[in-house]
Amino acid sequence: MPNMSLKLNSFSLALLLSCAGLITLAACNRGPSQPSAANQQSGAKRYALKGKVVSIDKQGGAANIDNEPIPGYMDAMVMSYTIKPPDILDQLQPGDSIAADVVVDSDKYWLENVKITGHSQPPAAKPTARTHVPAAGDEVPNFKLVNQSGKSISLHNYRGQTLLLTLIYTRCPFPDFCPRISHEFAAIDRQVRLDPARYGKTHLLSVSFDPAHDTPKVLRAYGFSCAGNKDPAIFAHWEFSAIPQSELPEFANYFALTYKEEGGLLTHSLSTAVISPDGKIFKWYHGADWQASELLEDIAAASHSAT
Question: How far lies 165's CA from each of 82, 99, 156, 204, in Å?
């Protein structure tokens, strides 16, 4: 009997070791465990999107998409989406039809897995018009505008000062577009106010390209909202104005602004210019990837170059 017990125990041990070996082999064949997509993007939700490319902002890594209704997320509308990876933008053209995944994580959203499902018509061999791209040293035309007080102003009014000019429209719903630009301008305005000498040598001008909606009354309310108070003194240094419809095409072309009405909203590019005291372009920014600190450095450099 002792011998049989020993044989059984030996057999059991061999069986256990064999099973352990199989388990180890299976684990090796599987390789190291990978985190699930849910773990990689905790809380993120994904939705299928179909739409058409309206415009592209390569510098900002985004595109305006006229999307079809997205069940469970949004109705059909034109939205600006960050594209990941950004090099996909090199493959897109306005007018292309696409399919993609909308990834929504907290207050952020972007497109992944972008696939072109239909190409736009090829551009004409000879374009009928050429958009002007502001370059350092370009003379800025004396465009006429109407400010938040209903007063007619012109760009030559600011000769002798460094003028920061940016293009916005007050109904812009995209956080990374006009609201961000206005936020940065507010930071610049606050910083410059701390330096009385520099304050008198600079001026900020936010120009709306939506004159039908952005009346002086609307611009005034928008200015108070940007400043975070209702002190009219803000407009002595930071004005809000609109370009008349008759001058809008020429104005937009000079500052390389593209815009188009889609679904009650304006899809558009972004344009910000630093104009030196002599009325010439000192520096021009396309998109929204600049910081207030950069324009503050430009103010100092532009003022220095004019002396």
Answer: 25, 37, 13, 6
CATH number at residue 90: 2.40.50.320
In the DSSP assignment, the letter for residue 127 is -
Beta bridge partners, 284, equal: 273
Does position 22 have pLDDT exceeding 60, yes or no?
Answer: no
DSSP 8-state class, residue 187: H
The pair of structure tokens assigned to 108 is: 């952020």
In the chain, count of helices (H) and strands (E)? 7, 14
Cα–Cα distances in angstroms (integers) from residue 182 to residues 102, 128, 176, 178, 262, in the given order: 27, 34, 10, 6, 23
Structural element, H or E, at residue 217: helix 216-227
In a domain, 15, yes or no: no
295 & 215 share domain: yes
Query: Does 112 lie in the same domain as 250?
Result: no
Domain count, the chain: 2
CATH number at 218 reads 3.40.30.10
* pTM: predicted TM-score of the whole model, two decimal places: 0.62
The domain in which residue 88 lies consists of: 43-118
Q: In what order do the strands lie in the sheet with 271-275?
A: 152-154, 144-147, 238-242, 202-208, 162-168, 271-275, 281-286
Q: What is the pLDDT of residue 125?
A: 40
- What pLDDT, in 10s, does the model give residues 263-272? 778 888 889 9
Judgement on whether residues 295 and 163 belong to the same structural domain of the protein: yes
**pLDDT tens figures, 185-195:** 999 999 999 99
Same domain, 112 and 206: no
Q: What does the DSSP 8-state code read for residue 125?
A: S
The amino acid present at 142, given as its one-letter code, is N
Contact present, 171 and 218 (Cβ < 8 Å): no
Both 74 and 165 in one domain: the answer is: no
Contacts of 185 (CB under 8 A, 6+ apart): 164, 166, 204, 206, 226, 238, 292
Do 83 and 178 fall into the same domain? no
